[in-house]
Specification:
Mean pLDDT: 88
Number of strands: 6
Strand order of the largest sheet: 2-1-3-4-5-6
Radius of gyration: 14 Å
Helix content: 40-55%
CATH class: Alpha Beta
Largest sheet: 6 strands, parallel
CATH topology: Rossmann fold
CATH architecture: 3-Layer(aba) Sandwich
Number of helices: 6
Number of domains: 1
CATH superfamily: Response regulator
Structural class: alpha/beta
Low-confidence stretches: none
Length: about 150
């Protein structure tokens, strides 16, 4: 299996650096770019090929929801995995409706990030187990019916 090429988008450099450091040990994930906001991420996807964008939701300049919408317009084939400390039904539903393939809560083990990125790169849905069942079911059903993706 070829490594999944990832762009990490997060306004906190400590988060980006921590993820990059952890992915150095991975044989499945290769971080080839990073951006500190959604606008910078949009610029980067026009210049490079990424399989998955790990997208923070709350950021200054351009948030992850708006960036995801525009990203999908520019490159419909790109896969976005939302990422946030806030396991908030409104945010999760909104970013998924913007085109993200799933959501992972910050603080999950690096093995969960690796699993999520690989699944999303293959066109599957990934939803963090920190999402309560009602939100999970609503978001999962939306993804399954809207994108006709693998489950």
């Amino acid at each position: 299996m070829e490594e999944v090429k990832v762009l990490i988008v997060d306004d906190r450099d400590v988060i980006r650096d921590g993820l990059k450091l952890n992915f150095l040990r991975s044989t499945k994930i290769k971080v080839i770019g990073e951006a500190s906001d959604g606008l910078e991420a949009l610029d980067m996807i026009t210049k490079n090929h990424y399989d998955v964008v790990l997208m923070d939701i709350n950021m200054p300049i351009m948030n992850g929801i708006d960036s995801t919408k525009k990203m999908i317009e520019i490159k419909p084939e790109i896969k976005v995995l939302a990422n946030s400390f806030f396991v908030n039904a409104e945010y999760i539903t909104e970013i998924v409706k913007s085109g993200a393939y799933g959501f992972i809560a910050k603080g999950e083990p690096i093995s969960s990030y690796e699993q999520a990125i690989v699944e999303v790169s293959n066109g599957s849905v990934f939803l963090s187990n920190q999402i309560d069942f009602k939100i999970y079911e609503e978001v999962y059903n939306y993804l399954r019916t809207s994108y006709k993706i693998a489950t």
